[in-house]
């Protein structure tokens, strides 16, 4: 007996400019994107406490969506425990920023969550993984802010992530062509992926050059960080596809849910923290703003 054909088995190329139609997202996406960018930049330069508040609010909203995707409902004990655990790790960093203590908080909370979700038979690995998935990037962000020229490091990070997302969206829609991973995210194309990486290279080179650093090195770094941002985006797409969910939420007009907005940042901020604190590479490439 034959069923309906699988449209992702042999996907047709994206139509590009020929298939474009006006969408309300063309207006709402940039408007809300700029508003969110201004909020984040204000928190970055406001100092560690302000950035911690923005990170805590983002974690609350993202955890709500994650546990809706991997579990049942939003106001579950798992969601509340994830939020409180990451908040505790952030508070530990702000008020007692010993190098390992916040990560010990995350690790211990993850084990408790694993036991709680196992007892409730609620996808224990997925539920417990939320604490690490959201908590490690949140702590990485705070660590970067506390580093020398931390505000500039984080602005450079967001320059890459925002350029990657924008470049991928624009080039993918205009050029179209072969799809990147149709089984995970049918709308992503190879042209959009490459366009996003090129946009990140140009944006990062310009940003670093303006503050006095080496533009060529910054461009290469932008390409690498953009590739990691793309992987973070694909990971969230895989999770949604695994649980048969199209969008993590609809809170942000033109962007979907909070997780849909920060998926690239979650992977990129951890990568940047490794570059700075483990590899001891200067992502400002000689700039001293």
In short:
The protein is mainly alpha-helical and 289 residues long.
Question: What does it look like?
Answer:
- The protein folds into 2 domains: 46-146, no CATH class; 149-289, no CATH class.
- It contains 9 helices and 2 strands; from the N terminus they run H-H-H-H-H-H-E-E-H-H-H.
- It has helices at residues 25-46, 48-70, 77-95, 101-120, 124-146, 150-175, 190-210, 215-242, 258-277, and strands at 179-181, 185-189.
- A two-stranded antiparallel sheet has the order 1-2.
- Mean pLDDT is 86; it is low at 1-8.
What is the topology?
Blueprint: H1 25-46, H2 48-70, H3 77-95, H4 101-120, H5 124-146, H6 150-175, E1 179-181, E2 185-189, H7 190-210, H8 215-242, H9 258-277
Antiparallel strand pairs: 1-2
Helix pairs in contact: 1-2, 2-3, 2-5, 3-4, 3-5, 4-5, 5-6, 5-9, 6-7, 6-8, 6-9, 7-8, 8-9
How many helices in DSSP terms?
9
What class would the helix/strand composition place it in?
mainly alpha
Overall number of domains:
2
Count the strands?
2
Shape: globular
Biggest sheet descriptor: 2 strands, antiparallel
Order of helices and strands: HHHHHHEEHHH
Mean pLDDT: 86
Percent of residues in beta strands? under 5%
Strand order of the largest sheet: 1-2
Distance between the termini: 67 Å
> How big is the Rg?
20 Å
In terms of per-residue confidence, which ranges show pLDDT below 50 for 5 or more consecutive residues?
A: 1-8
Relative helix content: 55-70%
